[in-house]
Design goal:
alpha-L-arabinofuranosidase activity, binds alpha-L-arabinofuranose, 32% strand, alpha+beta, TIM Barrel, CenC_carb-bd, hydrolase
């Protein structure tokens, strides 16, 4: 018995001694696959206050009184003996796209009556920055009602103010700019009205002047910058389940999200009621971030646009409503029109509209998603109709097809088999699973059919508790498991052409789903460890995969290690990515053939923590973030020590 235990110990010792001296080989002149320039991208969905209350920089919540409770977010205020009342008017017959406005009666000649707006969990205001208040207004009485605009901090002190007197008896837009004197996380906007009379108000809005590219009514600069810093290959929008809607009525309809913002029909956000443990009754979609803004953002950050459209199916986790096949045409037409909107010139109907909206140049749309996470024969039927029409008119546009919400099982198998037989372009696979699953599936694509459809790993994130649990965190364990898995995506870059983590954004007080790539409050934001994994893969993807082997095998979990290598033909470098998912350090050696040798100093980027449960936060935003160092290379042998729980990238420059 003792002898058996001794032998087992020896065997274990031999194993770790072997692994401690693991000899990896890289054949630097044997290109196995080309890495798509679009490989690592972004999945955007308006979930967790990502758009309204997040990247869309509007500070006023329910600016046009279109929430189901039209005064949600607003409170009546009175001062100095002022008095009045508010009526909510529904003009749906005249303006169905913007049915509500308010009629305010100022009953007292002295003092002020007003309304305050609480913003999205408050309004983030920065000292010294300029803000632009605007409103659609119409004077109704004989006397003009004057507006006094104030920003209050959380102790009710005034930190910015302006005056405005609308003069017209017809609807008109008025605006005024002012500076803020303090930085406040949770400010409120007060709109005081004085002078006895009646005034109609709509589209009450407050924006920072400083937005992404300083576009008026634009996007939060710090958040878009985080996207730009990823140098993403594509931007998938607008979701996610939001494409589908809980019911068809609340599906995403791109045509309703372009043009004048007061003509974009607001609807409830499907995440408002999705999770009973994270109800968000004030979550609506104004579509201030609409398709034009998505396309422009993609262009700004150098990402290929990848819109996903509803295919006549509401979310199958919810109502699963279907449009009958003989009523599908308008949905298909939306897809055809979108391609024309993105790519057509000014002689086409939709290209002309894009030009009129200020963008004569095309957006170079090359891919389009038909449906989000659909499944079942009902999807196949609708997919066929979409595909026939799109390919008939635009044969070069690649269609992204769903294969259900899970990476395997009955729904996946049916779609995978059917779409392969039908010669689909790109299959959109989703996996939300445990870190263990990610580690165990690093070889998922090693045996995929090389001649079949390409793969878009369209949504993935490791879940440290269980998918959907509000206790999930963006731990280092999750990020490291994703890095390990992603070495498998890259090794199979001939099949896997695109990948994106999901969801993207979350407001620390307004989220419904966790984990998420980037977290923010009203003033600041930080990238999770998962963000840095995605960013490092993107910035160091290289152009061509070359074999990195251990004993002639792909490195996909032996002794807890995962690795891939690529050439970067643009910079003339060999890029090695190595993940040590274990608690013990690894001493590795790489024997590189097919190269004339490397410059003596290689660049190393390390992302790591000793604590698998560690997270980043608003207080410690870069606790886990990349650290650069140098390493000396001798000839074509590289010795690399890899600490426990570490993702390392080494860039060797050819001589
Ligand atoms: O990313 C959150 C949700 O997960 C997406 O909306 C959906 O596509 C998936 O089920």
């Amino acid at each position: 018995m003792l002898r058996k235990a001794f032998l087992m110990l020896c065997a274990a010792g031999a194993l770790s001694a072997n692994s401690a001296k693991a000899q990896y080989t890289i054949n630097a002149d044997k290109v196995k696959a080309q890495i798509s320039p679009n490989m690592y991208g972004i999945f955007f969905e308006d979930i967790n206050l990502a758009a309204d209350g997040g990247v869309y920089a509007e500070l006023v919540k329910n600016r046009s009184f279109e929430f189901n409770m039209p005064l949600m977010g607003w409170d009546e205020q009175k001062k100095d003996g002022g008095d009045g009342r508010v009526e909510v008017i529904n003009r749906a017959t005249e303006r169905p796209e913007n049915a509500h406005f308010i009629k305010v009666y100022i009953d007292s000649a002295t003092g002020s009556f007003g309304l305050s707006n609480e913003g999205f969990r408050g309004m983030g205001i920065k000292a010294g920055e300029e803000y632009s208040f605007s409103v659609m207004a119409k004077q109704e009485g004989d006397q003009n009602v004057k507006l006094n605009i104030e920003l209050h901090d959380d102790k009710n002190a005034i930190i910015g103010k302006a005056e405005l007197t609308p003069t017209d008896k017809e609807w008109n837009r008025y605006s005024v700019k002012f500076n803020a004197s303090a930085t406040v996380q949770k400010a409120q906007l007060y709109v005081w009205m004085s002078g006895k009379g009646i005034i109609d108000l709509d589209m009450v809005s407050l924006f920072p002047e400083h937005t992404w590219k300083n576009r008026p009514g634009g996007l939060r600069a710090d958040l878009v910058q985080k996207l730009a810093d990823m140098k993403p290959g594509f931007l998938r929008f607008p979701g996610g389940c939001i494409v589908e809607g809980r019911e068809l009525n609340t599906r995403y309809q791109w045509k309703k999200t372009i043009g004048a913002i007061d003509e974009r029909t607001n609807i409830i956000n499907r995440w408002n009621t999705e999770f009973s443990h994270r109800l968000t009754p004030d979550y609506y979609q104004t579509f201030g971030l609409g398709f034009m803004e998505y396309f422009m953002t993609a262009e700004d950050i150098g990402a290929s646009p990848l819109p996903i459209l509803n295919c006549g199916m509401a979310c199958e986790f919810n109502t699963a409503e279907l449009v009958p096949m003989d009523k599908l045409d308008p949905y298909i037409q939306d897809a055809l029109d979108l391609i024309e909107f993105a790519n057509g010139d000014a002689t086409t109907k939709w290209g002309k509209l894009r030009t009129e909206l200020g963008h004569p140049a095309p957006f170079h749309l090359k891919m389009l998603g038909v449906g989000n996470e659909q499944w079942g024969p009902q999807y196949i039927e609708r997919w066929k109709a979409f595909t026939k029409a799109i390919k008939g008119k635009y044969p070069d546009v690649k269609i992204v097809s769903a294969v259900g919400p899970f990476p395997g099982g009955k729904e996946f198998d049916l779609l995978n088999k059917t779409f392969r037989a039908l010669g689909a372009d790109i299959l959109d696979e989703h996996y939300y699973a445990s870190p263990k699953w990610f580690l165990e599936h690093a070889k998922r694509y090693d045996n995929y059919d090389r001649k079949g459809p390409k793969i878009f790993a369209g949504e993935y994130a490791a879940q440290n508790v269980v998918t959907g649990s509000p206790k999930n965190k963006n731990t280092w364990e999750c990020a490291l498991a994703e890095a390990a898995f992603m070495t498998g995506l890259e090794r199979n870059a001939d099949v896997v052409r695109m990948a994106s983590y999901a969801p993207l954004f979350a407001h620390v007080e307004g989220w419904q789903w966790t984990p998420d790539l980037i977290w923010f409050d009203n003033l600041n934001s930080y990238g999770s460890p998962n963000y840095y994994v995605q960013q490092l893969f993107s910035l160091n993807k290289g152009t061509d995969v070359v074999p990195l082997l251990l004993n002639d095998q792909a490195v996909a979990g032996q002794d807890g290690c995962y690795a891939t290598a690529s050439l970067d033909k643009n910079t003339n470098e060999l890029v090695i990515k190595f993940v040590n998912s274990t608690a013990s350090a690894k001493s590795t050696s790489f024997k590189i053939t097919g190269s004339k040798g490397y410059q003596k100093t290689a660049r190393v980027i390390t992302l790591r923590s000793d604590d698998k449960d560690a997270v980043n936060s608003l207080e410690t935003p870069t606790a886990i973030s990349p650290v650069s160092s140098n390493l000396t290379v001798s000839g074509t042998t590289l010795k690399l020590d890899v600490e426990p729980y570490t993702f390392k990238i080494v860039r060797l420059k050819n001589k």
